[in-house]
Amino acid sequence: MSFVDTPDSPTLPAGVSRLLAPPVLRPRGSNHVGMRQFNERVVLHAIRLNGSLPKAELARLTGLTAQTIGMITARLEEDGLLIRHDPVRGRIGQPSVPLALNPDGAFSLGIKIGRRSADLLLVDFTGTVRRRESMPYTFPDARTLLPAIQRHMGSIQDGLGALALRLVGVGLAAPFNLGGWHKMLGLPPTVSDEWNHIDLCAQVQSFTDAPVSFARDTAAACVAELVAGRGRDLKSFLYLFVDTFVGGGLVINSHLHNGVHGNAGAVASLPLQVSSGKGLPEQLL
Question: How far apart (Å, rounded) are the C-alpha atoms in residues 59 and 195?
Answer without folding.
Answer: 50
